[in-house]
Write a structure and sequence with these properties.
The complex is a heterodimer of chains A (566) and B (116). Chain A is an all-alpha fold. Chain A contains 25 helices and two strands. Chain A folds into four domains: 114 residues, no CATH class; 92 residues, no CATH class; 144 residues, no CATH class; 78 residues. Classes of the chains: A mainly alpha (566), B mainly alpha (116).
Amino acid sequence: MFSQTLRWILGTTLAAGILLATPPTHAATNDSDDPKWCRNCHNEPTFSAAQSKRSAHKDSTCRDCHQGYQFNPHEPVEEATSEDIDALKKRGFKNPVPLAACMDCHDAPSDTAGAFPHGKNKEGTKAGLPYCLDCHGDPHEIQLMKTMTPAARRTAMNKHCVSCHGDPKRMAPFRLSTGIVAAYEHTMHAIKLDLGSAEAPGCADCHPAHPPGDAKKAAALAAGPCIKCHEGAQPSFRVLANHKPMTVKDRPISFYTVKFFAWLTFLTILGLSLHVLLDILNVVRRARKSSHKRKHGHQPKLEDMDPTVLAHVSDGRIEPKGTILRFDVNQRIAHGLMALSFTLLAFTGWPLSSHGVGASHFLVSLFGGLQTTGLIHRIAAVGLVVACLYHLTYLAVALARGRLHFTMLPKLQDLRDVAANLGWLLGLRDKKPAYARFSYFEKFDYWAVFWGCVIMVGSGAVRWFPTQVMRFAPPWLYEICYLAHTDEALLAGLAIFVWHFYNVHLRPAVFPMSWVFLTGRMSYEEHEEEHGAEHAAWLAAARAKAAEAAAKSAEAAQATDEKRAP
Amino acid sequence: MKTNRNHIQLLPTYIGTGASFLAYLFAGAVPGILYGGYMGLIMSTALFGNAAEPTLLARIVTGGGMALGLFASLFFFLVIGAFLGTVLGLPFAPILRRMAEAEPMPIAAEVHVEQR
């Protein structure tokens, strides 16, 4: 009896347990607000995301938004739960119930002034204007702002803006150009945002779709969007951020600036690269001949020289060890400072000009983030300015003391040297031209740095202090500086890393490194090879001086003999 | 035309160059191509209009940019490596100088053999 009762109790309990533990096979049987019942059938990943801790709607239930839906057959109820539904239906929205649901929790955008076109949607004045989900995306995927980095939040928001403003069909009724998207992507705002800047604004920071919620933001916006970040910006400052496409019609100055620097960079780099390529090919072609010369030929050595002549070579410029002074200590300091600042500038500026390359993000993180990268860039810029001033002061002092020989000035002989060297590189001449103190490619390096410094320092200063400059300068000046800085940087970088590095350090004659920039000195043999004209001039002068000295001593000896003679 | 520095004295410079070449193969070649290609694309866009069509000229400029990026990266790594090798080798300079001085000149050796 007892066992029967026990069996009955156990059986009943087990059956009840199974019944309670088994989920319903059809959601229509349940009327709960718990999203898990809905997900029994609607099991898309985004619905899980909506329940994650990061979701902005984690505390909402499905039916909070999907109002008016019965569990089965899931038909919207004709009687709307919101008074907005009828108005929205009239405007052709296919699914007005969830849209109206947004406004149950969120304040409806109000735009009495009509300054916010998207805000007009509620009133239904224009067909085709976006509604909440067009800009804010799938509500299941909207995350709490505090769980996202500012850059990630703005980037996500920008994608929604671009989805409409980059679509020509969608923009056609409003006569808006989709070129603004491409133009925006070239702005510093977009570049910094792409590299993860917390401060860089997204579209909505400058172009809010709704009137700002609080009075402080509204006041800031009324004063102009730029002033939020650029303290002291005048109303005219706003024109700098125009997103007009870069065409002759819309932005002629920018268009021609880009064209000028593009062709300048292209032709210069093409010429320099071909010169380097010809040199490499020439080295390969003559390698066997040079090897033969080294084994069997004779190259004049310093120790072979007549000591009486040696004593007069360029007034003692040749040291006992046989090195010739090329650059004094001041020149080496200026060069070192410039090399260091240039390298830092290149590596901290490069990620911004090539933000589309993944390695740029790595470089930025290597420097400690975008803020630190910018700081290093500015410090290096100051270093570059100091290097320029140092050298200019050096030149001024040398000029005042009468020691400036203007050997770096371009001369007609340089053109002859170019032709002669090209002939040699192409195998049309047997002998390399004998250069004076500075060859044409050294002069090119020197004057290119001057040109580059003027462009880079000038445009960099304008970009560094835009609000101050814009108080008195026209907007086109900033546009030119903005474009010129990046384009000139590319030209300078390639010219230094390809042309300068090859000619100075990587030619087989000096590989793996020339020491002249460290010691300032060049060997006697190298000087004869690289600066044959100057070398020959020195020797001729020294021989003349030696002969003169010899003649004088002979005269003195003769006079002494005559005195001694009876 | 080599300088008059003995190859033994240049040993740290050569080591730096070799190490930097390995570093280039590991971390310089691919970014060089990527940056060069990116610059080539931007350049072809600026030269031939916005946006550049995949024409032969645009391809040549982009491909040229990739080659240029490859070489620019190589040159940069080699020069910086040689410089760092030289600087890091400075403490060993006296030892290397002594070794270089002890090393007989190869040309002199040849002459010596011929004289025999």
